[in-house]
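sorry for the late reply, my laptop died twice this morning and i had to redo everyting from scratch. anyway the thing you sent over, i finally got around to it. pasting the sequence first so we're on the same page, its 618 residues, then the predicted structure underneath. double check i copied it right bc i was rushing
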Amino acid sequence: MRTAFLSFFTLLAGTLILPAQNNTSYWQQHVDYTMDVKMDVKSFQYHGTQKLVYTNNSPDELNRVYYHLYFNAFQPGSEMDARLQSVKDPDKRMMENGKSRIASLSEREMGYLHVHSLTQDGTPVSFNEEGTVLVVNLAKPIPAGGKTVLDMEFNGQVPIQIRRSGRNSKEGVALSMSQWYPKLSEYDFEGWHPNAYIGREFHGVWGNFDVKLTIDKDYTVGGSGYLQNPQEIGHGYEAPGTTVKTKGKTLTWHFKAPNVHDFMWAADPEYIHDVVEMEDGPTLHFLYKNDAGIIENWKKLQPKTEETMRFFSKNIGNYPYEQYSVIQGGDGGMEYAMSTLITGKRSFGSLVGVTVHEMAHSWFQHILATNESKHEWMDEGFTSFISSLCMNEIMDEGKENPFEGSYKGYYALVNSGLEKPQTTHADRFSTNFAYGIGAYSKGSIFLSQLGYVIGQDKLMETIQKYYEDFKFKHPVPNDIKRSAEKVSGIELDWYLTDWTQTTNTIDYSVKSVESEGQKTKVVLERIGDMPMPLDILVVNADGTQETFYVPLRMMRGEKDNPYPNLKRTVLEDWAWANPTYGFTINKPIESIKAIVIDPSQLMADVNEENNVHQKLLD
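ok and here's the structure:
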């Protein structure tokens, strides 16, 4: 009965905005990377130079900077290794025979990233490598509004494929090069964020990348940015109908990636490279192994990727870059600037699903770009929400509730007793189970349930306003809340607080239904600590239906009727402090067949059994 009344989602086709900061004006740092890297495909070692122009747009003078050295995580005894050996449910991809794969790496198999020299405006500076973080004491402070130039030389070794990055994956991809270069840590209104890399999430500085990569000429490369020298390279990048002749054993690929906060590339000598030119969108690149078992699915994936790009551009906002690359590599699916790494030996449905999910990250993580370490649910959850809608449409799944899986996951987390508030730092979850469901499932429900609170059309307007106001600005949780308040006119501080900062649950019940002469008295009870407004469906014995709406007083407003074909009675507000609430139906109890709290099932009520009062008829 409840699912039959599910609300349908209506999908609606220069100035810096102040985020939720205690500053009088918005600012963010800026970086310009110029890198020249030479890769030895036999030893999997590489040498690079990096020139970094750092613009300090903050109001603070900076005496120190930090770099991330992610590949140092793939060494025995690293923090990532230690975490694998101590967490209750380690990532299976990183384990073998019940033991950490990192712990058994030899010197030739492990990863490393070491800085050999570093100068600031030509003056040597002191630096210290602390695991996956380089601590740099500057030769001179960078004043507020000032710039400095940091020049370095670095060496790296690509680890065997264990997590996200690596060489010689299980599917035979030679190089998945993510988190591969010394990356400057973000400094924002909260200060520095030099988080150690233990396998979780990221936060980066917006900037421009100019990267030259020299590698064996048989290798095809794809990833972030725009190739600047296609007629020197070939490999499917050259102009149609032209040929490219190369000399020597190597090629130098030159990429530029403007206004991004990361740079990924992948390379393999057996890549097939397909290019799709969208009439109404970016150029799409597909790079995948020349493996007869996967080629058909990868060909079929390409029109679905076009549909996905159009769906997200319509329902979130326009994709701002000129290319997007779907690349076989990595260890599952992981998003990067203008690109993704995904494993390729999958069923067609799974291949589409992982592509849809990772592409959605392009909006929520690589254009909006929240601090994933602190607000992982804003990226993973919002991505899960929009990808569920997208899959339901482009794959004709026909689900009445596309988010059903997220709700099931959340209920399992609540019942497990392992839940932590969503404000928990991504690295501080005691189990991967609690992190995954808290970030993905509960994060998705933040939006689907917000649609229940403010209305589905207002939810989609909120997402579009949020994107337009905060793209390229590292939004924080208060920003999505304020976007929703501005669109809906409803106060939502209570919603953000209870859902993300506590583990309070929602549990409402139909406590009693009693006759009062020719009327019926209904008493509702709030059992859980989290407040919510209520939609109540009344089904009459003659088959007619109507709804009653109980606004939450602290909302200071109400949503539009989600069931316009049914009569709706708006009741007085329910003040949260009152555990019970009564109202009267102007019908005798004999004429009422059923009373149902939330027929949409979009309110995450942890006990649905007490949401229904149903008359047993002879």
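The chain has three domains: 30-74+111-369, 395-501, 508-614.
thats about all i looked at so far, will dig more tmrw
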